[in-house]
Every structure is written in structure tokens, then in C-alpha cells.
Amino acid sequence: MSDPVPVTQEGFLSDNRVKWLRQRALLALGLSGDEFDDFFKESLERARSAGVARMEVASFLGSGFAAGSSLFFSALRHVEDVEIEEDQEVEVEAEPEKTIEEGEGKNDETTATVATTENNVEEKKDLPAEDEEKKDATTTDGEGGANEEEAAVPIPTKIMIKKIIKVKKMTKVDRCTLLMGLDKMTPEMHERKTCYFIKCEDGEIEKNPNNSDGGFSKIFEFGVFNGEVLFGLANLMNQIYIPTIKKSVGSTRGEGKEDNLKHELNANMAKFEQQIRQVVQQVQGDVRLEIPAVTINDPEYVAHEDYEVRLQLEKALVEWSSVIAAAVEGEVQKVARKINRTPLGEIEFWRERTTALSALYEQINMPKVQLMIQVLKISENPQLNTFQFHFGELTKLYLEAKDNVKFLTTLERHFKHLNEGSFNTINDSMFAMLNGLKMVWVISRHYNSDERMSPLMENIAKTLVKRVRDEVKLNAVFEMDFQASYNFIF
After folding, report:
1. Pairing outcome for strands 70-93 and 193-199
2. pLDDT per residue over 468-478, tens digit each?
3. pTM, full prediction
């Protein structure tokens, strides 16, 4: 018996079985090792969920899950606004530094100036008038020279120095969150690239399987869906499973019970593949809504703070309203063509309406579109009333068509007998067909009125009349003898 997968953080990530799953998930989804490991490491945000994820993977690899169990991984990528601090170099003016020596020097200069002035005054008193005038002139000239020297002193320049400061700013950061599902895909995976692992053996998975026998590749079936799950499933059925079953069945059909079962399985698989493609066509449809490529993590924040995103959503909402209104108007105009339809044509009419409207209905009900509508509701966008009116009309037509297809399909086998069966087959199926019509009348929410049931009954009667006219030729009846003509008619 192999050792169970440890659920401790270090032991879990170092286990060979987990490493094998990790390697293929990284290659399939384009993840880094840290992005995968962080999903299973305990942190402030994943204090409890990381341990739960490790226990689920350990149970999947252990004896708790049998063959056919599945494990899914996908990645949710989004851009997040984060506030960061970064160093920025700026130039600032240097502050002047005053020293003691500079202060003492200035005081000495002031004292010397005062002493010189006093001496000049005393010399003026001793000199005669003429000499005094010359002295005054000389003194005046000296004072002018001093002023010129003072004016010539250069103004000190500003000294700029470089300084590093911390600056806060918002930046966009790419985030990647790992998604995991056990035995079923989560709703977030349906439109994203998803890888899957399916157990092919019961019990505990060996820690070190023999590589000569295929190793883990023989124990697990591994594959990738690129977002379109239904389309990928239809391709798998068409390209892998159906050819494999056809090869095992062979070209000739035997009489044994096993051969009959193989042929029945082959026919059912082919029918299932056609049904999947029909569903894909209904979901995708011919009309595709233009959905803005925006990520909404907090509807309240976007509704009140993010003007650009709200503007994109409002523009998209106006476009959706016009597309839905045109689709509803087109379906309403088709009602005029309901006259002179066959019973099978009645079923086909409602099927076409279901196919035409289901694409728009399903697109509007996608989680991300509903999140966008929620943002517009919170912001009380005025365009929302027009959209809700048109979508209400679309919903009413779609649900009516879907309900009618569900009930009328129970009568499809009898309607085919009216078109293609023999008269004996028609006669045998008449009673069952009338019982089916009665059930539709009682249970259906839309074919419970004369306006709906009477045209259907008229179409059945017209189809019977047409079959009789096509099959019974009066000239041929008259040429027969009595007994032959009686047997032919009755």
C-alpha cells in the first residue's frame, strides 16, 4: 500500500504525485511555480482555504475517490491597482551655513569702520577752510568709491543639491489566482482555459509508479479545455470516442447480444454528439453581444468611483437594448407565417424561435454580464429601464417557446406517422395522439386555449386529408372490384 499524501505545507508540495500534477498544470495554464504553490501555502488571505485545498487534493490522490473522479485547475487573471512607494530624485536649494568665524569677522569690520569715521571728523576740525573743502571733496570721492565697491559685491548664487524622497503612486499589477474544482468545474472555469485530471484506477495512487509501465500517465487521463467546453466535448466525441467505438464494432453487425449492444452504443454516441453541437449552436447563435473587456471586483467601487468603466457599460447597455429589440421584433413578425403549417412545422417553428432567442438570453444571464448590470443598477443608470423592458419581452418569448417545444416534442412521433407512416400505422397511433393532445391541453401553460389548440387540430386534419388525397386515387378505386376497393379504403 502506498503512503498517503501528506497535508502539511512542506510535505504536500514535495510529494511526487503533487509535483506531477503541478508540472502539467504549469505547462497547460502558463503559470509560474510560485502562482501554483501560493494556492496551497498558508497566508493571511488563505489561512484556512489553503489547508482545505491540500486536503482535497490528498483525498483525490488517496483511496477516498474512485476511478472516474476528476480534478480541475484554471487561472483567473486580472489587473489590480496597487499603491506603491518608490524613490525619486529631486533638486532642492541648499540651506546656508553660518560659522562663528564669519560672525567675528563681521564685528571687527564694523568696529574698524566706526573708528575711521571718528578720526575723519577730528581732522576736519583742525584743517583750514580751503583744506577742509578739499578734504570734504576727497572724502566725498572716497565715500562714492566705497559705495561703488559695495555695489560691486556679487550677490550669492543659490546652491542646488540632489535629494532622494519617497513618492506614493498608483500602478497596475497583473494578478493571477489559481482556481481548483474537485469532481466538477466551478462557474469561473467555463469560459477559461482549464486542465483536468481523471483517475483511471481505484484506491491510493502510488508515490513512485514504475515508469516502464507508463508512470503517472497511465494512472491519470490529462487534457485541456480552451474555454469552449461544449465545443471541445463535441470534438472529443467526434474525433476520439466515436471512431474508437466504430473500430471495436466493426463493419459487419453480428447476431450476438454483445454486437447489438455495441451498435446501439455507437448510434447513441453519434446522437449525443449531434445534440451537443445543437446546444452549442443554440448557445452561440448568430447574434453575439459585444461585452466590454473590463474586470469588476467590487461593484460598489466601480458604480461610485470608476467613471470610465461606467461609461463603457452604459454604451454597451444601449447597444444590447437595440439588439434585443430587433430580435424580438423579428420573432413577432414570424407569427404571420403560422398559417397553413403542418404539425411537424408547428414544432419546428418553436424550435427555431428557441434557437434564435436562447443565444441572447444566455449571454445576458452570464455571471460577468449580470455583474455589469448590477453596477449600472447601483449607479441608477437611466438607460437601465429601457434595457429591462426589452429583455423582459425577450424572456417572455423565449420561455414560451421553450415550454412549447417541451410539450409538443411528446407528440413528434405521432406527427411523423401522419407524414410518413402507412394508413394502418396512422390508425394505430390516433388514439395515443389524441391522449397526448389532451395532456398538452391540461398541463401546458400556452397550449391551453382555443387560440392555440384549434389551429393545431386543423393542421392535423389537413395533413390527414392531404395523405388520403395523395394515396387514394379515385380512378384506381373505381376500377377495382367491390371487395378489393372496400379492403383498400377501410
Report:
1. antiparallel
2. 888 777 777 77
3. 0.49
